[in-house]
User: Fold these one by one.
Assistant:
Number 1:
Amino acid sequence: THFGFKTVDKNDKEKLVKGVFSSVASKYDLMNDTMSFGVHRLWKHHFINRLDAGMRPGASRPLDFLDVAGGTGDIAFGLLDHAETKYNDRLSTMTVADINSDMLTEGEARFQNTRWNDGSDRVKFMVQNGETLEQIPDNSKDVYTIAFGIRNFTDIQAGLDQAYRVLRPGGIFACLEFSHVDNPLINYAYQAYSFSMLPLMGQLIANDRDSYQYLVESIRNFPPQEEFKGMIEKAGFFVPDNGYENLTFGVAAIHIGVKL
Ligand code: SAM
């Protein structure tokens, strides 16, 4: 193994991941922008529009959202904004869960300046391992989102099983994650870039080579699209025909599952 990360004991991965995200929490946006040339913002925007979630006029009750590995709140605030702007939904609730309290603290600090900080208690932040979600009851959520989080799980299948458990029947699982480029030429360029340039940029911009190196490794080790789709089905979800969508040649992908 090149950098030692693959040799890490499974039980130590959690600690390693904690360390990585604690060290990047405050420069998290900078890191994302650097890595993806800002494209992650477009991907997130597309993910939120594709989900198109919100309480429809005439619906009997608001929705309960859960954003896991929600870190700094990007996806959570984006979903709430979409629901309100498009459907005038000011009632649906949002729980942001992340294993790392430093990332959540960033998210909570950002939350203070949003319009959802209205004393209504609609938005909650919870330190929670996505592999167990012990504070989230069975069948209690309508939409489970996870963006750039699940590849950091020690046990991805356990995370998917938990997603299935906490969703109500009819609930939607939606994941945005780095994935695999299948065009060999583009993949060649992408690998060359990510393998050599990213850790260097991490060093120069954030003075943090190791965290960037971890990111490159974690992306490599994440299962390819079809395999990940199979894991979602194994958790019990129905995956529709268009159950995954490649973004930017598969550099990232959206996976969807429905709890029937
Ligand atoms: N979703 C946010 C976004 O798209 O900007 C944050 C993504 S960040 C790359 C990954 C997040 O996953 C970190 O905040 C990290 O703490 C969290 N994470 C890693 N392992 C986790 C786990 N087992 N359970 C919950 N969150 C986890």
Number 2:
Amino acid sequence: MYKDIATPVRTKAILEKYGFSFKKSLGQNFLIDTNILRNIVDHAELSESSGAIEVGPGIGALTEQLAKRAKKVVAYEIDQRLLPILSETLEPYPNAKVIHSDVLKANVKEMIEQEFAGIDDIMLVANLPYYVTTPIIMKILEENLPLRGIVVMLQKEVADRISAKPSTKEYGSLSIAIQYYTVPEVVMIVPKTVFVPQPNVDSAVIRLTIRQKPLVEVKSEEFFFRVTRASFAQRRKTILNNLTSQLDNGKEKKEAILSALQTAGIEPSRRGESLSIEEFAALSDALYESF
Ligand code: SAM
């Protein structure tokens, strides 16, 4: 039996052996609690025939736990200094593969075709680098990859925004973008003490179950997201004022905006934060021909 990577003693020994120094700019906060890692993996509900994709393996703490449960793990790591460490720590796990790449620049779809051929249950599981949490999640969702879901550690504040319901202060265009593609659930709140170094913010684990089809059907996804972003540009403004000031030529098209609001059954004096995702879909469809 190998000793788990994610214990304070083993992690310290590995870091010292390689003279590794953390790069804050890469969001390097490593997990040193095996129970938390096992819990994260539990929430991914993997089986021996599952595949797992990881972003940022660090020294392999989560990768190891994934490799013990899944058929295959592929992890993207941007920091070249971690590659020799990972070769050593993951040596006992031939089903784990590390790709040296910025995940934001990687062709994940092609990787899935090559590495996960014959595997039809794939989860993305990661302790994300906090400086790029949202771009990573959005990239994965927008590329429409064949995944069952995503289980990730992130800033608690972002987890709250992702899972927020209308008429709360956390609800915004991020809640809508993610709920359009997935059903989010915050499954764990995680204390700072389980990381080295400790992050400045509180953390949470969120599970995003990917919907078979998006929550609402819209004429144009691109325009729907443009309308939602415009509607939250200034939270204290009414939906009418945000749309007239934020959409291209919105001021000249005020009549069209008023008429679309009426078609969608939305009072112009409401604020964006009070609109459900279904209402945003009706509004964006009613406005679409005018823009
Ligand atoms: N999985 C490890 C753990 O839980 O202990 C490390 C997690 S640490 C929060 C984030 C990791 O992501 C670091 O190893 C960092 O180098 C890597 N990383 C940062 N930006 C990345 C990017 N754009 N693409 C791939 N990996 C990245």
Number 3:
Amino acid sequence: MGFEPIPGPPGIPFVGNVTDINPENPIQSLCNLTDIYGPIWQFHLGGNQRIVIASQELMNEVSNEERFSKIVSAALKEVRNGAHDGLFTAYGPEENNWGIAHRVLLPVFGPLAIRNMFDEMHDIASQLVMKWARHGPDHLIQVTDDFTRLTLDTIALCAMDYRFNSYYRDDLHPFIKAMGDFLKVSGDRARRGAIAQMFYREESRKYWKDIELLQQTSREVINARKGNPTYKKDILNAMLNGVDRKTGAKMTDENIMDNMITFLIAGHETTSGLLSFAFYFLLKNPSAYLKAQQEVDEVIGNAPITVEHLSKLPYLNAVLRETLRLQPTAPSIGLQAKEDTVIGGKYQVTKGTPIIALFSKVHRDPAVYGEDNEEFRPERMFDAEFERRNQEYPNSWKPFGNGMRACIGRPFAWQEALLVTAMLLQNFNFSMDDPSYQLQIKQTLTIKPKNFYMHAHLRNHMT
Ligand code: HEM
């Protein structure tokens, strides 16, 4: 078999390609370099090789869990400082806690259990509607900020019956502030490396204090529940009482704490980014906006939204799928080969080398999505076409990750995003603050629109 070297930018001795990657928006840099080097290329940071893959064909190959597994490296490895072997940052089945938590929690995040969380989701979504109604059409809506309040309050209420009450305070709840700072610094630390890190002593001190606060608060929530048990079927009770059928083990308090922090981390920015991009795309595409709102008017009208309505909104469903195709809010995942191997028929990959699966490009593969792959066209995401394409081009739409390490919160996020989008379109007409706004991206662990503002004009009715 003839091997070929993996192409890539040349780089500088010792530091590698650090100057090729914009620290403010690394994903955009990876996309730009993909345009130059093609669907598989490599770069080096320090002495370490990283491989980027960016086509459906390669995505399909690395989705084979017999050959490849998730890697916890870069920013995720830093997030592990705070979330330890919680589901998201665990190395995998080799850590017992991952298996126990995965098996205990899978049914709790299943579609039926999520239906039971509808009322709590509705409660927080109504708070957002009330806020925008109260502020009136002149109010400049900071779209991602308000959606982040919504998603954090929702996951905290559904997971552990805890109210951050983000819409009733101007400042951020100390837990939310600590979590935001912790995530930001985790990203910064990953870019720096150990030696440079030594020059950031004050930042490090605060970083570990923030982690302490996250754990302390989680411990308090657990102890409060233990002191006042309820029969509520929420995620915290499932973690406290659930028994793993395979091992007979229960989750430890430490692991429950780590997973509570995990759900808050993994469960808010991604969904808030999805909602923000969805409104951006709707406002930029008036015909899609009209169809979405017409669907809401026909299916729900002036009635209060119920959980049954949500399965009758195919256009909104397609809008959310198409939004995550073009702007996957978790824009990449890290994988590794389990053994030395060859990918794409000719590129050698060493066991353990980080492989970055770049969804932002995989999702625009012209071989799958055609000439108009850059366009926002929800119609391509209706069930029939969506399923046919997934058959013909497996793993061409991966915003929720892969295999057993895929997102456990997918049904939760989907129900929440559908409900909120429907409720907002039902109650308001929206306009962009600056109609000439061109999408800019802010990247932390996830991506979201930057400086995106809109106005909400109350429609005739309120529900
Ligand atoms: C894992 C995306 C919402 C909890 C993942 C992964 C992706 C993802 C791509 C795989 C990460 C990797 O391989 O490193 C998303 C998107 C969401 C979303 C796009 C919203 C639109 C949520 C929500 C929750 C959640 C609402 C919790 C309530 C998790 C957890 C994992 C995970 C715990 C780790 C699962 C494991 O490895 O066992 N998510 N997520 N996510 N997500 Fe989500």
Number 4:
Amino acid sequence: GEMVIAIDGPSGSGKSSTSRMVATQLGLAHLDTGSMYRALACAVSHAGIDPQDEPDKVIDLAGSADIEVDTRPGHDTLIIDEVDVTEEIRDPRTSARVSAVATIPQVRVLLVERMRDIVEQNDRRIVVEGRDITTVVCPDAQVRVLLVADPAVRMARRARELGEGVDHNQIHDQIVRRDRDDATVSQFETPAPGVTLIDSTSLGLDEVVARVMALAEQ
Ligand code: CDP
């Protein structure tokens, strides 16, 4: 039957790893909505559009771009208007640009519509992760989780993900600045009614996965 699992959380909260593992274990599809905003930010940059000066052009692109997302867990290929941006969406330059695109309200309306289409295409058997999934995209999900962690832990995780030789001050700036830039779309301190808060500061990934699985089995 239907099983939509909505997971929201900030950068480095562990939502991507958790979502992928839960989807794999339950045989569900996996949609990382952040990757859609990131892909749009890449296309905007390729087109030479400045989101601050030309928001209308960003909105046009959000409506017209062909966005191909692979929803099989562990398959993260992302193609926008025939350009493979799988690598580019993870580039720190994309991270620095994405909030300017994601905070345009009409862009969100258009992408949320696409996200809901993807949920339907997967027969509503899917884990969806992002910033506003529990509240806006899938408020009627069977399982709704807000995953949080202390900023220091989130930074350490992000640093580990990015590998050797990364500049910790830069990561700090990125996480703190993006939290601030995203504040209009994400509410991380208080979960909406009916949303389960999981603080992963002192929990391992397996423990977080186990808690989400327990909610799915209720
Ligand atoms: O990887 P990380 O958790 O840092 O970010 P992400 O989930 O890939 O999301 C990247 C950016 O997309 C966020 O900083 C938001 O600006 C935007 N986003 C959003 O506005 N709404 C979502 N549902 C998901 C992402």
